[in-house]
Amino acid sequence: MKYVFWNLAFCLLLGGMSEGQWQRETDNLLANFNNMYNPCVVETGGDYRYKMWFFGWAANHSNKNIPGSDAIFHARSRNLLSWEVYSKGNTWDATMDPGKWVPVIHASDRWYEAWHVGDPSVVVKDGHYYMAYSATSKPFSERSGYPAAMVQCVMGAVSSDGIHWKKSRQPLLIRRKDTADPKPEPGRMADFHRPSLHREEGMWRLWFDYWIPGKGVCMGYAENKGNFMKGDGFRITHDLLNPVIENWPNPEVIRIGKRYHCFSDPPGYPTKPGESHWKSRQLREAVSVDGTSWKKREFIPPDRDVDACHVPQALVTRVDGREWLYLFYATQVGYRKQDGKYHYQYDRIRAMRRGIDGP
Questions:
Q1: Which residues of 146-168 are buried (b: 16+ CB within 10 A; e: fewer)?
Q2: Residue 304 and residue 263: Cα distance in Å, rounded?
Q3: Where residue 45 falls among pLDDT bands split at 50, 70, 90?
Q4: Between the CA of residue 269 and those of 37, 38, 261, 266, 347, what are the distances in Å?
Q5: pTM, two decimal places
Q6: Can you tell me the mean pLDDT for 24-44?
Q7: What is the pLDDT of residues 293-349, one digit of tens each?
Q8: Could you tell me which CATH number the domain at 3-357 has?
Q9: Is the Cβ–Cβ distance between 346 and 330 less than 8 Å?
Q10: What kind and span of H or E run contains 75?
């Protein structure tokens, strides 16, 4: 497998840290599935040095014979290039046969975790895996204040092997007044979702997105100085009316040295008249010195053979004697000539990387 060098003019210098240019992966890391995305990769060492958690629909629409709809799956790799997915009978599939894959986390009978389960963000600490993930109620009839037609929240889970998980008894973040069948609330700010979890200086830090009427999906921030699994342990540190970053869905935060980098897939990328709104959403980066005050950079253009790249996750690791920032993402099926329609599903998981030099 080879990397193809793409000359992107937006490569910048930030505070003395030299950043290389993005190199795009020519092959897919995972493919042949129905609709899967959000590839969270962590480095664990051992024979299989890297572990991935991702979610969506594997072999068919909405995961037949699995509670709810979206579910979280698990994969492993020795080299970030070839992946095996956890499958039936405690086996691992390297043939990209999603009919064999089984989820490690799926929906439950709790109303706030009854339908979609996904967006995994994993931290390894003291030999255990800690995960923050998105969960939703079952869909209900459309009503004002609930643009997703369901309640969204952030859940937690812990595991000793990355496969068997113990879930938190209550959501880590949820609007207190929300219920399985809520009344319309036009000015409601909530739907906490898409977490990015960190452990720093004895504290849990959590970035997430949420809905603000008139502003859309924005990024928020919360802290927890105590028990990760405690339902009311995370405290949002800012006024929800004033998000950490406006118009910033699916945030992924990573710390490199003394600086933070956040990736998202916000709208605003130039499109031609008549093109799908999905194409206006592309990967974009923001930088910060404290994780709360951010400066946006330019959009990252999509891969040449796809219409859109979305739902980023990041990892810093050493490969071939050099430190790299890897950005994992999913590619959208997009426009098909066969039927003249735009398809929102994600059909491939890929990565690009950028060299890291200096502190």
A1: beeebbbbbbbbebeebeebebb
A2: 20
A3: very high
A4: 21, 20, 19, 8, 21
A5: 0.94
A6: 95
A7: 999 999 999 999 999 999 999 999 999 999 999 999 999 999 999 999 999 999 999
A8: 2.115.10.20
A9: yes
A10: strand 71-77
Per-residue pLDDT, 358: 52
Sort 276 into a burial class: Cβ within 10 Å, 0-12 / 13-18 / 19+: middle
The answer to whether the CB of 308 falls within 8 A of the CB of 332 is yes
User: Residue 132 CA to chain centroid, in angstroms?
Assistant: 10
Q: How do residues 68-103 score in pLDDT, each as one tens digit? A: 999 999 999 999 999 999 999 999 999 999 999 999
Q: Are 309 and 263 in contact (CB under 8 A)?
A: no
Q: Please list, in sequence order, all residues whose beta carbon lies within 8 angstroms of the beta carbon of residue 116, skipping any fewer than 6 positions away.
A: 68, 69, 70, 107, 134, 135, 136, 150
Q: Which long-range contacts (CB under 8 A, 24 or more apart) does 136-142 make?
A: 136/112, 137/111, 137/112, 137/180, 138/111, 138/114, 138/180, 139/115, 140/180, 140/181, 140/182
CA-to-CA distance for 28 and 34, rounded, in angstroms? 15
Q: CA–CA distance from 53 to each of 73, 101, 231, 320, 352 (Å)? A: 6, 12, 23, 24, 18
Q: How many CB atoms lie within 10 A of CB 329?
A: 29
The secondary structure of residue 135, as a DSSP letter, is E
Angle (nearest 5°) at CA 349 between 344 and 352:
115
Which amino acid, residue 2? Answer: K
